[in-house]
Every structure is written in C-alpha cells, then in structure tokens.
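This entry is listed below:
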Amino acid sequence: MDEMAEKITTAVAANDWDVQVEPRMILNPTPPSVDIFPGDPSSGDDAAGFGDVSGEELFTVRARVAPTDHEANQDILLEFMDDLGDLSIAAAVLDDPTLNGHASGMHMVSKSGYVLEPKLDGSGFHIGCRWVFMVIRAQS
C-alpha cells in the first residue's frame, strides 16, 4: 500500500491542491483526500477457503472531496477519475504494475461512479469515487 500511496502522491503533486494521501484508511479526512486499504473481500474469489494460496490481494483506493463548493470539488474528482488525464488515480497506480518489485502484476478490477461517503461522526458526507485493484504478490 505504501508503493500505491507514493505513486498517487507523485501524480497529484503537480496540481494546485493540497491532497491528503495515505497508505491506510483515513478516518477523519481533510478533503481532497485519497486513502488505500484492503478490499472487501481482501483476496480474490479463487483464494476463498484455500488459505489464500493464490497470492492475490484486492485493494481499494478511495478519493473524497467535500460537498462544499461541490461543483469545483466534483471537477477535482473528475480529474482523478479521468483514466487518461495527468491526475488519473488509475494511471498513477498502474504505472508500475510490479509496485517496485513487490508484486508480479496488477490490474484494475472496478471503478465506481460518484458515491456518497458518510463522515465517521455522522455529521454529513463527502463525495467520492472508489477503485479496486487486484495485486498479485511477487513470488519469493
């Protein structure tokens, strides 16, 4: 997850926004934010019941923006979602599918549209998007 966060941080650093990027779930984000955490389920369907011998792990990458000034913040989210844009989250993660030698391969399984992400304290929501990546662990 650290390698994914590093790639996303590098990709979004070339913009005018201060983006919080963490290689773990951010419980109290300062949007715009991007966090990375094990998917649900955390491994591929083929691994179920077999002690995860497949070596496949699912990771969720979640981007969130604030609902205040929602039009401008949705523009930020759209730039993150644009697969061909300079700020593409998917392109940043998939730039090196070996994650600097930590994986033997990786691919994007899915990308959501806009989703409402509730705040932990129940006081409101953020607007977000989620990507799910399948990472195949490198054989040691």
